[in-house]
Design brief:
The protein is α+β, with helices and mostly antiparallel strands and about 425 residues long. It is built from 8 helices and 20 strands. α4 packs antiparallel against α5.
């Protein structure tokens, strides 16, 4: 009788990665609760098939409703929706997107699509995982619920419908207890979901924490649903598992560097032998065969050097797509943070590039447009743009506006 292979879950914890082992049928038990923030720094991972659960901060969740019940169309519909939102993943970094069904109603389907950012150096474990998923899908929840907990020192939250993930988001809040800012951010997300036709009314609010004295008063004041404070349940393997399969492109880059070093070492040895032979002359016949072999290796390695140089050039061309400072998703998030709460202001078009932004939108009140304009010009992470915010035009639906922002071109001094 063959021995059952142990499953190892790498789970984002409150202050670092947690290691859980077990079987999907019998459950998982925690083996380690580390303070390690990078999965690549984890030591002594038990033997077995590793499943890595990405933290909420590593992804963007995009819920949507589609007028189709054909599962084969869902990835394309999600990709089109993401393209309109300016979400793009690195095609060189593997499978960074997936789509999950939340609810089916006749020919209409509610979906949530997940977009991972490209894993950075050290964010993947040294021993390659067999599968990947996201942490909110691995926590068992029943009914319509709102859950909040800490991952790597910061608060995150997730919305569930009939136990299935609808939306999740990481926040900047790192307070010991959930505060008013966290409650406001959650309420704003629920409002945005309802504006998309995804009205979720949680029947309970769950605060997962290992701190028995955690203060949930801010959540109780913000929501009418009862607030439950309890330890986070043991994780489970989501069914079905996601199709996420990131490729560590930096590992390929490190391999190319190693090849280059080997090539240089071989060439150096060949030059050393040739110099010794030319200087002394004596004994040339003894090592001629070895010299020919080394020369052949150096010639074989030369095309690899050219390929590596081409690779580096192409990689540099992707700088604007990889640098988070120029990420359309991050820029759009900064712009969204400038929209006055509960103002009804919405964006109809957002064209974002590394050097230019064009925003078209409307608002029911003139004050909302001027407030939005002021926040754009004063936002700390948008100060590198020079904004043109002409007066809005009044329409039958309120006030329409077109704002543009450009990064000034600095001319080099002679």
């Amino acid at each position: 009788m063959s021995k059952t292979t142990e499953n190892v879950l790498l789970v984002p914890g409150e202050s670092g990665w947690e290691i859980w082992t077990g079987q999907p049928e019998t459950g998982f038990s925690q083996q380690q609760a580390t303070e390690t923030l990078l999965a690549g720094d984890l030591k002594d991972i038990p033997q077995g098939d590793i499943t890595l659960l990405f933290p909420v901060k590593a992804l963007t969740a995009v819920p949507m409703r589609v007028a189709s019940d054909d599962d084969a169309l869902f990835p394309d519909l999600a990709a089109l929706h993401a393209e309109r939102l300016g979400l793009r993943t690195d095609a060189m970094a593997g499978q960074l997107t997936d789509v999950f069904v939340v609810e089916r109603e006749g020919e209409n389907t509610t979906l949530v699509s997940v977009f991972l950012r490209t894993p950075a150096e050290g964010e993947l474990p040294v021993r390659g995982p067999k599968a990947f998923d996201i942490s909110p899908r691995a926590i068992p929840v029943t009914g319509d619920a709102l859950a909040t907990w800490r991952e790597f020192g910061r608060w995150v939250f997730a919305v569930y419908h009939q136990g299935k993930l609808v939306y999740c988001q990481a926040t900047a809040g790192d307070s010991r207890h959930p505060d008013d800012a966290l409650a406001r951010e959650i309420r704003l997300s629920l409002i945005q979901l309802s504006m998309q036709g995804l009205t979720i009314e949680p029947t309970r609010v769950i605060l997962w924490s290992s701190n028995e004295s955690v203060d949930a008063s801010a959540l109780r004041a913000a929501f009418t649903a009862p607030v439950e404070v309890q330890p986070r349940p043991a994780p489970v393997l989501p069914v079905p598992l996601s199709k996420l399969l990131p490729a560590d492109v930096r590992a390929a880059r490190r391999a190319a560097v190693r090849k280059r070093n080997i090539t240089l070492a071989v060439a150096a040895v060949a030059l050393l032998y040739l110099g010794v032979l030319g200087w002394f002359g004596y004994g040339l016949w003894k090592i001629s065969a070895e010299t020919k072999d080394l020369n052949a290796r150096a010639e074989e390695a030369a095309p690899e050097g050219a390929e590596y140089a081409t690779h580096i050039a192409k990689w540099d061309e992707l700088a604007h797509a990889i640098d988070l400072q120029h990420s359309p998703v991050d820029i759009l998030n900064r712009i969204a943070n400038c929209i006055p709460p509960n103002s009804g202001l919405r964006l109809k078009v957002a064209e974002i590039s590394a050097t230019e932004i064009k925003l078209q939108g409307e608002a029911p009140q003139y004050q909302a447009v001027t407030t939005f304009s002021l926040k754009l010009s004063k936002h700390n992470e948008l100060t590198n743009y020079t904004w043109q915010t002409p007066e809005p035009n009044q329409s039958t639906r309120g006030w329409e506006f077109v704002f543009t922002g450009e990064v000034p071109i600095v001319e080099s001094q002679p």
